[in-house]
Amino acid sequence: MSALLEIDNLSLDFRTRGGTIRALEQVSLSVAAGETVGVVGESGSGKSVLSFAVMGISDAAARITAGHVRFEGRELHAADLAKLRGAEMAMIFQNPRVALNPIRAVGKQIEDVLRRHAGVNGTEARHRAVEMLSKVRIPDPERRAAAYPFEMSGGMCQRVMIALALACSPKLLIADEPTTGLDVTTQAAIMDLIGDLARETGMSTILITHDLGLAAQRCDRIAVMHAGHLVEVAATSDLFDRPAHPYTRKLIATTPRPSVGLADLEPIPGSLPDLRGVLPPCRYSQRCERYEAICETTPLPRVDVGSAHVVHCARPL
Question: Where are the alpha helices (DSSP H) in 47-203?
């Protein structure tokens, strides 16, 4: 499959009063047309920072210091991203109540996207907004189009976010923790909805989550991040059958599974390193039980451990 999105050796810093935070370092990842790729890791590993960089909506303190982002083979710049966002690239944010405009009816917010990117106005825009609410399975969409976010449940707000993101049939959807704060039943319904719409349209999806179980169920490939490094990428089944990076193995060991009792879950020792100042080549080295002097080798090696299974580690498992 040809790559729709290519992230090539992307590095990003945040310039703060407390020093420069090296949030991403030499991250490379591709997403093929129609593929669903999961990006997993602990909170603070850089998952959302990566997605914001791809969409061109990083904080003002952020600076891309190296690397490239390409969409359909062309390198993206600020002007390109302004045209593509909402039209060909879209994003679902973690907290829909924060992302939605609290003083504008949800139907009007979808109409705004359609006017901006699809060139439709008036009655047609309203009709298509209601149609999108129906497509994301919101009951009585005509009435709900006039509702405000505070009048809707968390699950309904998340469905509105999906309708906003998909209004212009984008080729790429980034879903950043789309089930945060939702009950288990609603989580499953939201993920089923995203999966169904992706299959219907051939859309590519990046699913950002700390939940490996969710990624295992929904993704074709999984990319594992730790402290701004992409440490392992593999097909989902291969990653769970043969995790090659020590961090990936620890992440899997912390994930509840039907065959494992709560007492058998293993915590990951230590914590994420401070991303300011001088950092070791492997940012997991101080937490790793396999650490040896070779782990201080620069640059961190890229090792192919199987078909399309890549790990960045001096001592893979």
Answer: 47-55, 78-84, 96-99, 106-117, 122-135, 141-144, 154-166, 184-201
